[in-house]
Design goal:
Length: 199
């Protein structure tokens, strides 16, 4: 069974983040979640990227005095991501929009919607959330600059546009080994936005 919940990257730097303790957020401790420079990754079971009445992400950005990045991961298959910073505001993007569209289409077909109509509805759902990958990548690199990291846009755009890690080496993998879990995409994005790995 895959991961289902929201991953949140926040620069804590010893601050007491009440917004997280109020929600009983779980500190993620596996290797890809460990970060340096005061960054930590937390997990919550619910989706706080879409429709969060408590405005958790703005509260975290204010409490941490740093940009915040979050992704709701749907059973490790795809994700809805939001970045927030004081200077550049909020931006949103899909992690693997193609898979999200297929899942939504198939869900609608199981509910009795014709495949053609289901596909159109799924396409509209994808279009209704987030920025196109190229635009989202530009906003993500702005986010990184505000967090103190200058990074190239290409690898970020590649992650947001496909389900594979950036670089030529990903193309060298056997086809059945190219699948990447959505949470792995999120952690790869953290790498390519400059957030250092922790020890």
């Amino acid at each position: 069974m895959g991961y289902w919940g929201t991953l949140i990257a926040v620069q804590r730097n010893g601050r007491d983040l009440v917004a997280l303790t109020d929600r009983n957020a779980e500190l993620r401790i596996h290797a890809s979640a460990r970060r340096g420079d005061g960054w930590q990754v937390y997990g919550l079971p619910e989706n706080v990227v879409i429709g969060d009445a408590d405005d958790l992400l703005p509260r975290l950005a204010k409490e941490s005095q740093a940009p915040v990045l979050a992704a709701f991961i749907a059973d490790s298959d795809y994700g809805q991501m939001a970045g927030l910073s004081q200077l550049h505001g909020r931006w949103e993007a899909w992690l693997d929009a193609s898979t999200a569209r297929l899942f939504e289409r198939d869900h609608l077909v199981m509910q009795g919607v014709s495949k053609a109509d289901a596909n159109q509805q799924a396409v509209r759902m994808i279009a209704g959330f987030g920025l196109p990958p190229a635009t989202a990548a530009e906003r993500a690199t702005q986010w990184a600059r505000e967090a103190g990291y200058t990074v190239p846009v290409g690898p970020v755009r590649q992650i947001l546009a496909s389900r594979r890690p950036p670089g030529v080496s990903a193309l060298m993998r056997l086809p059945w080994k190219r699948y990447v879990f959505a949470e792995e995409m999120f952690f790869a994005l953290l790498d390519n936005l400059g957030l250092p790995r922790g020890r």
